[in-house]
C-alpha cells in the first residue's frame, strides 16, 4: 500500500535481504522462462501442425482438423526432443547441451551396458 513501508525494509540483516532479493530474481526468471516456453509451444502448434503428422497422435474428444492443442505439442516434444537433438547434432542448442554434459558420466554409462 502507498503509505506503508516496503516489506523488505523491515528486514534488518543484510544477508537476509540479499537472499530475499536473489529469491525474487529466481522466481522472476522462472516465470519469464515459463512464459517464453508457453509462447514457443503455441508457436509450434500454430506453425507446424500441418507439417508434422506425428502431432496428431492423441485422442481428443473434439479434435481440431488443422491445429493441435498445446498439450499435444508438449507431449510430442517430451517424447521426441532427445531423438530430435540426436538427429541434428549441428544445431547450436545441441552443441551447447553437449558442451555442458559431463563426459565421464556418459562414458561410465556406456561401460555399464
UniProtKB/TrEMBL annotation:
Protein name: Uncharacterized protein
Amino acid at each position: 500500500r502507498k503509505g506503508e513501508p516496503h516489506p523488505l525494509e523491515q528486514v534488518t540483516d543484510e544477508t537476509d535481504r540479499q537472499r530475499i532479493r536473489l529469491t525474487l530474481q529466481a522466481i522472476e526468471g522462472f516465470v519469464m522462462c515459463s512464459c517464453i516456453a508457453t509462447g514457443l509451444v503455441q508457436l509450434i502448434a500454430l506453425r507446424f501442425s500441418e507439417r508434422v503428422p506425428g502431432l496428431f497422435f492423441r485422442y481428443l474428444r473434439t479434435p481440431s482438423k488443422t491445429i493441435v492443442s498445446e498439450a499435444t505439442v508438449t507431449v510430442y516434444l517430451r517424447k521426441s526432443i532427445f531423438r530430435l537433438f540426436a538427429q541434428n547434432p549441428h544445431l547450436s542448442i545441441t552443441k551447447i547441451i553437449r558442451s555442458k554434459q559431463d563426459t565421464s558420466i556418459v562414458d561410465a554409462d556406456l561401460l555399464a551396458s
